[in-house]
């Protein structure tokens, strides 16, 4: 069968489902500290010692619970161990609108952690990226912070080529 | 309240569902020609309104289109007294399962009547068509008691 | 109820395309179901249970199995169960179907995977699979993370974009031999891949899977009835799944540890010592060209870092020692909820010798692999002998 | 069915209106940890894991991804049934019977407090014919209740008695969400929602999770002296479109029950079954369940509740836990039913214990108004 060009008859439906996703004490503290002091926290498993970002309350390897007391402060610096430039349009389900692009996106190993954070990077030219280069979390000014991940709009690539 | 314990997010996505030959024709006939069409299973003889490609009982493709009545008999109803963002009318109003004349299945739709005492299983209702069709099932705006 | 061996007795697929304008969801799925039932010469009544799945938010339909299981598959007045695990949905469905028959609970089970992805949008849907608080804001569907993995892989092992491009060339060429495949491009060249627009560096357009609409169905039967249905069967030799951390960034993604763990376990169970030699064909879920290179390493076809070399040496080509994705794979066809089930169906087709122009000669053992979730792996090995 | 698959331990959270401090992962961790501690096991003792959840309820595609860490699933073979937890239990049983795994943990979770349940359930209806009408679980239940009561002359008082019974039972269940008895008058005078259903004919919305460990025959002895055996199962799906459904008789449930009884060798369910936990989505639905499960003749569900035979001290107590009308962690409901029957047959149901319970029945449900039905028979 050949693909017909004309648009078929469609039934359109705008799904618009509100959700309130519980944060739990650990993430709550992370976002509160981020909002109040602009600092990033991770969490350290008291059994295996692994430092995990995003901070969460269960260490998957040990199946032990971690609490707000296990949270450790990070410098906000990390190494850029993976990188891409998102260069395609799509509807962002958070808004129902097309997300602006292109944007840099990295796998960032935050100093002091054993995991990678996947987040925006302020570079859209892969030619300027060095594997493992230093990146630094940019934090919004205090009066603009809302206590969500958007308070960290992106990581700044520091040691560009 | 515990609102600061939450991240408020949403899943907001515009979907475009290809209606296909059956739902497409059904809804367009309502909008364009104010006709209600069913489709008949050649095996069990049942007339389905609204139409679908496959008779789920016989698992056969259906091909024969038939026009059915704009009136029908109420098989069941409920009157809703609460509201949600997706309800097309302000409550109270009724949902009904209506067997249209000439069909053998229940057709689920709205009956514009908010008083359960005025509704009865077995009563007759008639489709009210929307004057400016929008290309969906609400091109039959509602059913009204005859 | 007696434990039994399980065989795939029939398969069905739609011709996968980017947009099925002519049919709605339920009508599209019916095509694959009908084909599988017809091949098995089974009536809808013969089916004991239906297992069907897709991703809820991709088409925005909750409990889709309650609709499609009845109106696209013969599930009326029968058991209908939905399994949905992301990209691995198809193999997870296949696993459910296998356990349902192997346990003795049912004798004939129909398994269906489908997606009508362009009713919503794959990237949009995939974003919703990730944590709303931590991951969704920056995540761009599957391609962003796949590109990150590709960059990490490239940086660690020096695998080149040209080597990745060769995967596309191979698979799109293979796809030309598969009448169901979406992108059939027998003449694709490395240059063409390398010159296609950058979608998510280092992934170019032709390094990426398409978004397809389609459905796939398979019919399982227990050993007692299977031989009555067909004398050409693909037996399930073993099934395993490797799940992994909740957050994709918790470990080295490009080494795909879940696949390493699950494949090691499964090979041992099935008695495979050297997968490259012992397996005759593999259908792997490669959502990008780079992914196939990484996956061939994690699945033990070669050492870490040697995926490019394996390809360069032609090992995974048609006619090579272990052809990978004779169907054209995911880089040619990707109706997400059906994609991993297509791997199983295609592996069954190879074992049964029904592959036509895409047939690998003398297949005794075939591997089907599903990828999804937070870098999860689902595996199934099919064989000619029970 | 011979004694081959055992439930050796169960764990539940308390069901509550809003567990604001617990994201899904921590909710699941609570029951997993409880189960581990009770049985003295670690994650290494668990062969495979089956979960059930729903992506619309959780606001997340592949809802099970959020709970991998909390399950202890890293490196393991986990899989997930999309929908009600009773179906996950059955998948767990299949995995044990197949022979690869001698232990399977089954977990189900739901937090109704995080989503708008009406919109979530409106999404169950396909977009062509039903969704635009704004239908949801309450309006469909209203249709069903009205058609059923019209056909069989069931009164609103009879339906109300179901709420009275179940809410009273819940007083004995420390896990139950609503622990306040109600009277027939209170039910009849509660806010009209979808005629004839009033607010107290309908369940609350709850948060909670449940977990259990299944083992094969050999392993069962290691963990418990009171294993609860899988004895029979039936699963049957009715038509999808409400206009195609038999709205007055739950034929899907009836066929599922028939199959389960056959497998379990049960001829007279009212006599042979000692305790039942059924997924009653609204008061009338429990009466319809009685009929479909063969506890009484068609149309006599009202008489059965009148007779008191399904009360705690009756011939066949139904929903000693308080049922869904007392606790409704939607997707977990079926697995909660299985867990409650397991506790009954283990003799661990404390104040809600039915004396000498040897054979129990649990049901699960998917979709709107008993479209997908699962009936499970368990034996002490």
How do you describe this structure in short?
Chain A is mainly beta and 161 residues long.
CATH architecture of the largest domain in chain D: 3-Layer(aba) Sandwich
- Strand segment count of chain A: 13
The SSE string of chain A, one letter per element, is: EHEEEEEEEEEEEE
Number-wise, the strands of chain D total 11
The number of domains of chain A: 1
Question: Total helix count of chain D?
Answer: 15
Strands of the biggest beta sheet of chain D: in what spatial order? Answer: 3-2-4-7-1-8-11-10-9
CATH H-level name of the largest domain in chain D... which superfamily?
A: Thiolase/Chalcone synthase
Query: Which strand-content bin applies to the residues of chain A?
Result: 35-45%
User: How many domains is the backbone of chain D divided into?
Assistant: 2
Query: Oligomeric form of this entry?
Result: heterotetramer
Inertia-based shape of chain D? globular
What is the count of helical runs of chain A? 1
Biggest sheet architecture of chain A: 5 strands, antiparallel
Which terms would index this structure?
heterotetramer; B: 146 residues; mainly beta; OB fold (Dihydrolipoamide Acetyltransferase, E2P); three-stranded antiparallel beta sheet; 1 helix; 11 strands; 10% helix; 44% strand; globular; D: 380 residues; alpha/beta; Peroxisomal Thiolase, Chain A, domain 1; 2 domains; nine-stranded mixed beta sheet; two-stranded antiparallel ribbon
Care to describe what's here?
The complex is a heterotetramer of chains A (161), B (146), C (386) and D (380). Chain A is mainly beta. Chain A is built from one helix and 13 strands; from the N terminus they run E-H-E-E-E-E-E-E-E-E-E-E-E-E. In chain A, the strands form four sheets. Chain A has a five-stranded antiparallel beta sheet with strand order 11-10-7-12-13, with no helix packed on it. In chain A, strands 3-2-6 form a three-stranded antiparallel beta sheet, covered by helices on one side. The mean pLDDT of chain A is 94. By secondary structure, chain B is mainly β. Chain B has one domain: Beta Barrel (OB fold (Dihydrolipoamide Acetyltransferase, E2P)). Chain B is 10% helix and 44% strand. The relative contact order of chain B is 0.17. The two termini of chain C are 20 Å apart. Chain C has 386 residues and is of the alpha/beta class. In chain C, helix 4 packs across helix 15. Chain D has 380 residues and is of the alpha/beta class. Chain D has two domains: 129 residues, Thiolase/Chalcone synthase (Peroxisomal Thiolase, Chain A, domain 1, 3-Layer(aba) Sandwich); 238 residues, Peroxisomal Thiolase, Chain A, domain 1 (3-Layer(aba) Sandwich). In chain D, strand 10 and strand 11 form a beta hairpin. Chain D is globular, with a radius of gyration of 19 Å. The chains are: A mainly beta (161), B mainly beta (146), C alpha/beta (386), D alpha/beta (380). At the A-D interface, strand 1, helix 1 and strand 4 of A face helix 1 and helix 3 of D. Strand 1 of chain A pairs antiparallel with strand 1 of chain B.
């Amino acid at each position: 069968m050949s693909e017909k060009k004309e648009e078929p008859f469609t039934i359109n439906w705008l799904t618009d489902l509100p959700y309130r996703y519980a944060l739990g004490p650990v993430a709550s503290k992370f976002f509160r500290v981020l909002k109040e002091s602009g600092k990033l926290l991770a969490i350290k498993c008291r059994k295996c010692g692994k430092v995990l970002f995003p901070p969460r309350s269960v260490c998957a390897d040990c199946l032990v619970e971690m609490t707000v007391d296990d949270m450790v402060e990070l410098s906000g610096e990390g190494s850029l161990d993976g990188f891409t430039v998102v260069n395609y349009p799509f509807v962002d389900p958070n808004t129902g609108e097309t997300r602006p692009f292109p944007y840099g996106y990295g796998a960032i190993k935050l100093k002091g952690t054993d995991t990678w954070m996947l987040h925006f990077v302020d570079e859209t030219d892969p030619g300027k990226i060095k594997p493992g280069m230093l990146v630094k979390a940019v934090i919004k000014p205090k009066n603009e912070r809302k206590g969500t991940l958007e308070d960290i709009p992106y990581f700044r690539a520091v040691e560009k080529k | 309240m515990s609102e600061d314990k939450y991240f408020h997010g949403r899943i907001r996505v515009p979907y475009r569902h290809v209606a296909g030959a059956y739902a497409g024709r059904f809804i367009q006939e309502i909008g364009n020609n104010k006709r209600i069409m069913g489709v008949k299973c050649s095996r069990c003889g049942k007339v389905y309104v609204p139409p679908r490609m496959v008779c789920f009982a016989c698992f056969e493709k259906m091909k024969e289109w038939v026009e059915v009545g704009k009136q029908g008999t109420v098989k069941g109803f409920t009157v809703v007294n609460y509201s949600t963002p997706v309800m097309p009318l302000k409550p109270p109003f009724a949902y009904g399962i209506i067997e249209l004349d000439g069909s053998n299945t229940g057709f689920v739709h709205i009956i514009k009547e908010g008083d359960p005492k005025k509704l009865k299983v077995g009563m007759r209702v008639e489709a009210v068509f929307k004057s400016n069709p929008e290309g969906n099932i609400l091109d039959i705006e509602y059913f009204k008691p005859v | 109820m007696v434990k039994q061996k399980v065989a795939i007795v029939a398969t069905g697929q739609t011709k996968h395309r980017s947009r099925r304008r002519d049919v709605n969801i339920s009508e599209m799925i019916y095509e694959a179901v009908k084909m599988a039932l017809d091949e098995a010469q089974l009536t809808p009544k013969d089916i004991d249970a239906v297992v069907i799945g897709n991703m809820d938010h991709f088409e925005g339909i909750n409990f889709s199995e309650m609709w499609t299981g009845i109106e696209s598959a013969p599930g009326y007045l029968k058991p209908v169960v939905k399994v949905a695990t992301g990209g691995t949905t198809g193999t997870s469905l296949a696993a459910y179907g296998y356990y349902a028959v192997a346990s003795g609970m049912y004798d004939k089970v129909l398994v269906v995977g489908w997606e009508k992805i362009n009713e919503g949008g794959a990237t949009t849907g995939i974003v919703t699979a990730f944590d709303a608080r931590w991951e969704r804001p920056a995540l761009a569907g599957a391609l962003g993370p796949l590109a990150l993995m590709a960059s990490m892989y490239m940086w660690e092992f020096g695998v080149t974009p040209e080597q990745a491009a060769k995967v596309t060339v191979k698979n799109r060429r293979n796809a030309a031999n598969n009448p169901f495949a979406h992108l059939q491009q027998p003449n694709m060249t490395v240059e063409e891949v390398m010159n296609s627009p950058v979608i998510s560096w280092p992934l170019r357009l032709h390094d990426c899977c398409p978004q397809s609409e389609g459905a796939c169905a398979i019919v399982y039967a227990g050993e007692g009835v299977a031989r009555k249905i067909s004398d050409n069967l693909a037996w399930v030799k073993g099934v395993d799944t490797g799940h992994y951390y909740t957050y994709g960034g918790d470990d080295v993604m490009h080494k795909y540890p879940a696949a390493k763990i699950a494949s090691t376990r499964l090979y041992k169970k099935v008695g495979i010592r050297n997968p490259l030699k012992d397996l005759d064909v593999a259908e792997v879920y490669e959502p990008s060209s780079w992914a196939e290179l990484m996956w061939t390493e994690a699945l033990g076809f070669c050492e870490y870092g040697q995926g490019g070399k394996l390809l360069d040496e032609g090992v995974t080509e048609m006619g090579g020692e272990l052809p990978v994705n004779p169907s054209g794979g995911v880089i040619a066809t990707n109706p997400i909820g059906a994609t991993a089930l297509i791997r199983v169906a295609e592996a069954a087709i190879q074992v049964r010798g029904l592959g036509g122009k895409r047939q690998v000669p003398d297949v005794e053992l075939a591997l089907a692999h599903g990828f999804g979730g937070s870098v999860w792996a689902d595996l199934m090995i099919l064989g000619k002998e029970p | 069915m011979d004694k081959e698959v055992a439930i050796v331990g169960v764990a539940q959270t308390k069901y509550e209106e809003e567990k604001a401090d617990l994201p899904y992962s921590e909710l699941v961790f609570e029951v997993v940890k409880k189960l581990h501690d009770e049985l003295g096991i670690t994650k290494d003792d668990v062969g495979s894991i089956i979960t059930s959840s729903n992506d619309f309820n959780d606001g997340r595609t592949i809802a099970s991804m959020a709970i991998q860490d909390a399950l202890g699933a890293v490196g393991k073979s986990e899989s997930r049934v999309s929908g009600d937890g009773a179906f996950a239990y059955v998948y767990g049983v299949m995995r044990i019977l197949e022979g690869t795994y001698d232990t399977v943990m089954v977990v189900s979770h739901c937090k109704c407090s995080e989503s708008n349940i009406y919109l979530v359930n409106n999404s169950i209806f396909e977009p062509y014919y039903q969704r635009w009408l704004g239908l949801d679980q309450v309006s469909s239940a209203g249709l069903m209740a009205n058609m059923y009561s019209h056909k069989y002359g069931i009164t609103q008082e009879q339906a109300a008695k179901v709420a009275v019974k179940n809410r009273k039972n819940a007083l004995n269940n420390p896990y139950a969400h609503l622990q306040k008895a109600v009277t027939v008058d209170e039910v009849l005078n509660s806010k009209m929602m979808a005629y004839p259903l009033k607010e107290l004919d309908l369940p609350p919305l709850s948060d909670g999770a449940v977990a259990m460990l299944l083992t094969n025959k050999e392993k069962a002895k290691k963990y418990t002296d009171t294993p609860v055996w899988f004895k029979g199962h039936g699963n049957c799906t009715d038509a999808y479109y409400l206009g195609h459904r038999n709205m007055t008789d739950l034929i899907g449930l009836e066929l599922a029950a028939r199959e389960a009884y056959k497998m379990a060798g049960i001829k007279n369910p009212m006599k042979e079954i000692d305790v039942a936990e059924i997924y009653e989505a609204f008061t009338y639905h429990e009466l319809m369940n009685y009929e479909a499960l063969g506890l009484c003749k068609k149309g006599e569900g009202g008489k059965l509740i009148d007779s008191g035979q399904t009360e705690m001290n009756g011939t066949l107590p139904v929903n000693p836990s308080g049922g869904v009308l007392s606790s409704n962690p939607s997707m977990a409901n079926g697995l909660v039913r299985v867990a409650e029957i397991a506790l009954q047959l283990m003799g661990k149901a404390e104040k809600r214990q039915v004396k000498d319970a040897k054979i129990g029945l649990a049901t699960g449900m998917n979709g709107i108004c008993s479209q997908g039905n699962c009936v499970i028979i368990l034996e002490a």
